[in-house]
Amino acid sequence: MNILILGSGGREHAFAWKLAQSPLCDTLFVAPGNAGTAQVATNLPVSYTDFTAIANTIRDKNIDLLIVGPEEPLVKGIVDFLRQQSDLASLRIVGPDAKGAQLEGSKDFSKQFMLRYGIPTAASQTFTAETLQQGLTYLETHSFPIVLKADGLAAGKGVIIAETLADAKTALTDMLDGHKFGDAGSKVVVEQFLRGVELSVFVLCDGENYKILPEAKDYKRIGEEDTGPNTGGMGAVSPVVFASQSFLQKVDDKVVKPTLAGLKQEGIHYQGFIFVGLMKVNGEPFVIEYNARMGDPETEVVLPRLQNDFVELMVATADGELDQISLQVSPQTAVTTMLVSGGYPGDYVTGKIISELGRLEDVTAFHAGTLAQDGHVLTNGGRVLAITAQANSLENAVRKSQEAARMVQFDGKQYRKDIGVDLIRYSD
């Protein structure tokens, strides 16, 4: 089987790493990929938003299976585009069409969807530039902190938690009047702040059947003890100590089943991943957000724990045969520590030589933003490497991931030294 992955981050390297282990994988391509994917697959200089070039690549390379990693091509309709190519009718695709990808592409759509199907979520209202004044008045009636979310895709940076009324009014005005997030912020969802602990649950759906993959917790803020600006993710842990079987059963019953029933009701044939961002509040699950793909860096802790043949799993998803698969999950704990460029998530410099990668033992370094050039691996993004360790205990997995994070070197390297530490001392 010839397989193509779209994307260039740590999630896509983890996909490639897992797919390459399967005897069913003949040839593996990643477009555009990075220095890590080049170690297990062939990188292709094709942008994941150039739909015509992707279709031509699928033809040229006789691709049997396409896995779409990032949200942008999904929201822009890559699946719809390929389904319109009559000569690609037999292509298997893992990823929803544009209608399904609205779960992530529009915060307003997903909130209305949750309300329609009785899925527990924070109370909210949506405002536009035309209703800015009503929005400012609404803020005056609200308790704080409060959450403001750009409706569209904003590269993980479209969420602001305002601690005071003044901050909230400034943020709402900047987003709607000042176009802080461009078109993504033309609508803003203002929502109640939920107090609890966060985790993510990942659902693999074939349009009819589904499997719930191992859960994970990620760490979004740049600073230790969750301080400083939000990032794309500074690390992750799986499994999650506070996600008991009884809690995960509630997630299945109150969130996953009604979500899939709702999609069917809306006429959406959803084949791919649904990332459910949750808050556990007094033992109950509330949905913070949906994503129409796997999370990053959560993929880098979820896939190492998955013991199934990943090609088999992806084919079953595309063929509507997930009911024939039994998930096999390792009981080990996986911890990933993200190494990022100096200055991230603000301005940062790339092109720094990465050294000591060859010395890493008993961990997996998933490349997130790297480039191979002149015999060196260089930094090529804000998030550079996801260092994943597995062990029989959370403490040992944390220690192994942190030791490896210390060992790898590049100018300006930053990382959090507390990934997973809160879970070691966690008690309900």
TrEMBL record:
Keywords: ATP-binding, Ligase, Nucleotide-binding, Purine biosynthesis. The keyword Ligase applies. It comes from the Bacteria. InterPro entries: ATP-grasp (IPR011761), ATP_grasp_subdomain_1 (IPR013815), PreATP-grasp_dom_sf (IPR016185), PRibGlycinamid_synth_ATP-grasp (IPR020561), PRibGlycinamide_synth (IPR000115), PRibGlycinamide_synth_C-dom (IPR020560), PRibGlycinamide_synth_C_sf (IPR037123), PRibGlycinamide_synth_N (IPR020562). Residues 111-319 form the ATP-grasp domain. Its EC number is 6.3.4.13. It catalyses: 5-phospho-beta-D-ribosylamine + glycine + ATP = N(1)-(5-phospho-beta-D-ribosyl)glycinamide + ADP + phosphate + H(+). The keyword Ligase applies. Pfam families: GARS_A, GARS_C, GARS_N. GO terms for biological process: 'de novo' IMP biosynthetic process; purine nucleobase biosynthetic process. It is an enzyme of class 6 (ligase). Gene3D superfamilies: 3.40.50.20, ATP-grasp fold, A domain (3.30.1490.20), ATP-grasp fold, B domain (3.30.470.20), Phosphoribosylglycinamide synthetase, C-terminal domain (3.90.600.10). Pathway: Purine metabolism; IMP biosynthesis via de novo pathway; N(1)-(5-phospho-D-ribosyl)glycinamide from 5-phospho-alpha-D-ribose 1-diphosphate: step 2/2. GO terms for molecular function: ATP binding; metal ion binding; phosphoribosylamine-glycine ligase activity. Belongs to the GARS family. HAMAP family: GARS. This is Phosphoribosylamine--glycine ligase. The gene is purD.
